[in-house]
Amino acid sequence: MPNSTELRSWGARGTAGVSFAATLEFAEVSVHLGGRVVLDQFSLRLEPGEIVCLLGESGSGKSTALRVAAGIQPVHAGALLINGQTVSSPGATTSPDRRGIGLMFQDFALFPHLTVLQNVLFGLRRLGRTAALAQARSALHRVGLGAREADYPHMLSGGQQQRLALARSVAPRPAVLLLDEPFSSLDARLRETVREETLAVLRETHATSLVVTHDPEEAMVLGDRVALLRQGRIAQIGTAAEIYRHPVDLNAARFFSPLSEIESIVVNGRALTPLGPVATPGLADGTAVTIAIRPTGGADLSTSGPGTPGRLVAKRDAIGIDICEVKVNGIEAPLVLRQPARADITVGQDVFITLNEEHVLVFGRD
User: Fold this and answer.
1) CA 188 distance to own-chain centroid
2) What does the pLDDT look like over 138-168, one tens digit per residue?
3) Which helix (H) or strand (E) holds 359?
4) Can you tell me the distance from the alpha carbon of 226 to that of 240, in angstroms, rounded to the nearest whole number?
5) What is the rounded CA–CA span in Å between residue 330 and residue 312?
6) Rounded alpha-carbon distances, angstroms, from residue 8 to 140, 148, 222
7) CA-wise closest residue to 300 among 332, 275, 280
8) Band (128; pLDDT cuts 50, 70, 90)
9) With CB atoms counted within 10 Å of each terminal CB, which end of the chain scores lower, N or C?
10) Can you say whether the dihedral through the CA atoms of 158, 160, 166, 169 is positive or negative?
11) What is the spatial distance between Cα 119 and Cα 172, in angstroms, rounded to a whole number?
12) pLDDT by residue (tens digit) across 247-273?
């Protein structure tokens, strides 16, 4: 549930200045750092006004890709283009201030010796004083800091510092906006609201936005598309629904949620499991497969049949949701299921499990 106090403190939606969005394209970009290939012929194109989230584990190359886009990291092969113009290539890098980009860093990178207003004005030095003040104050009002322009960053809360960083990045109305883990320093109480309002600001500015995150839920909420990085390349890209429902492989599926996994063999187009047969379209008989069941939606738990018998061995309350662990004969680890909270189900009770086959994932094993 969004924090109501935080939500009310933002300015009116629809008041952020509009940018002239540009295309952003990585064309087979490679970057080597410390003798290691960090980006490996990395290719990605963002259309004007599109929000794309780069998602991946530490070391996957996502932050390096952002630094390449910003002009902070040179490339060793390939090219980066903004609106079709090459701004990074081997031996040639256009400086960040000539790219028409906005940057929002993980630690906000605010200037502690400058006031709130001066922080935002810093990126508007090319404008005349009157125009710069108008754009800076407009951005501050949009993020709800119009009354704090004479304060210094240390006088702001963490959420307010995040909003100041956002105002500073959008005030110049950049064609491309780059955000590096923008919500990671916020506590859970604020994160949802700040994320929601930041997304609204991005939509209003219409800037082409590249957001780096390690949080799958955050990527799926924010991005028009999500790009999953693995060892410097895109392992999968698509809408949130596409990559969640149809992950390219088992590792991709594991990245988006915990899984209960059952190993089996395809026989007559189906894999037999202790929970019943599962269809295996496109896989030949005799293929070794892993059946992956997500905690949410993959199976239902009930106190009476039909279904496969099991025993509830653990139950945790997660505010309206029960996280249940069910031991089923023939399955080594307990199944982990997220269900609407039920007071009538207790640890040690016999229960029944029914698969929702449309939400069960099947992967061939090498």
Assistant:
1) 15
2) 999 999 999 999 999 999 988 899 899 999 9
3) none
4) 6
5) 15
6) 15, 16, 21
7) 275
8) confident
9) C
10) negative
11) 12
12) 999 999 999 989 999 999 999 999 999
Mean per-residue pLDDT, 108-128 = 90
188-205 and 158-170 are packed helices; what angle lies between their axes, rounded to 10 degrees?
10
Nearest to 69 by CA among 182, 231, 208: 208
Dist. CA 334–CA 259, nearest whole Å? 11
| Dihedral sign of CA atoms 221, 222, 227, 231 in order | negative
Share above pLDDT 70 across residues of the chain, in percent, rounded to a whole number: 95
- What is the bridge-based pairing of β-strands 288-293 and 360-364? antiparallel
On the question of a cis peptide bond just before residue 281, with omega within 30 degrees of 0, the verdict is: no
Nearest-angstrom CA–CA distance, 155 and 143: 16
Q: Give the C-alpha distances (Å, rounded to integers) separating 36 from 59, 60, 184, 231.
A: 11, 12, 27, 10
- Judged against a pLDDT cut of 50, whether residue 2 lies above it is answered with no
pLDDT surpasses 90 at 228: yes
